[in-house]
Amino acid sequence: GKRANISLRGLSADGIALRRDATLMDGRWPTEGSAEVAVGRTIAETYRGMDLGAQLTIGSDTWTIGRTFEANRCVAESEFWADLSTVQNFFNRANNVQIVRTNMAGEGDLESLKAFSDADPRLQLAVQAEADYYAVQAARTSELAQKLAWPLATLMAIGAVVGALNIMLASVATRSVELAPLRALGFGRGPVCAGLVFECVLLCLIAALIGAAAAFL
Question: Helix 130-137 to helix 139-174 angle, to the nearest 10 degrees?
């Protein structure tokens, strides 16, 4: 029942071929000149009315959902795909495109492409790896998450320390009978206290490693 923004990407057959992880779940890929869209699996699972054959109103035109695709759970699954020429005509973009995607033969080829683009003022392109491009897009969300995460993690850490101290005090109180013979044998308060602290720290370290492993997974 809420509104959402979904990207509509116009692709040629070559553009689809470049996305090697993209496979059809049903239907067929967009045909040239058709007002059909392919729906990513994430969209199909999240939003209503995304069944094959359903009608979508984009602007003043009606588009038909002709297929559903998956792309190894990458960001492409959150997009609508349609024929490039149809999208260009719909938005009066003629032969203009916003993004050109290409495969690099080797790691150094990206830097060569950047140098070539920078040397030709007519191109005015921003050349970057796809991962870097999406990192920039997500930077604001990531920054907000960091600003919220650090204060929350700090409060949780303080609470964990207080909880550990309470547990330690309760543990010492219940072990008074066990600790009394140590004092009777001549151990001072310092060594007994140090032994208890060492035991507590060791147990906390083991628990922290288990928690970190669970968080990492």
Answer: 70
Which residues have CB under 8 Å from 97's CB, separation 6+?
Answer: 10, 84, 88
Q: Is 107 helix (H, G, I), strand (E, B) or coil?
A: coil
The candidate with the shortest Cα–Cα distance to 83, out of 28, 149, 36, is 36
| DSSP, res 20 | T
Cβ count within 10 A of residue 75: 14
> Residue 30 carries which DSSP code?
P
Note the pLDDT tens digit of each residue in 152-175. Answer: 989 999 998 898 888 888 888 888
CA–CA separation, 133 vs 72, rounded Å?
19
Q: How many Å apart are CA 203 and CA 206, to the nearest integer?
A: 5
Distance CA 47, CA 77 (A): 13
DSSP state of 28: -
DSSP H or E segment with residue 176 = helix 176-184
- Of residues 85 and 141, more confidently modeled: 85
**pLDDT value at residue 158:** 94
d(CA 82, CA 11): 6
State pLDDT tens for residues 68-97. 888 887 888 889 999 998 889 888 888 888
The DSSP line for 109-127 is: HHHHHHHHHHH-TTT----
pLDDT of residue 192: 86
CA dihedral 3, 43, 133, 28 (to 10 degrees): -130
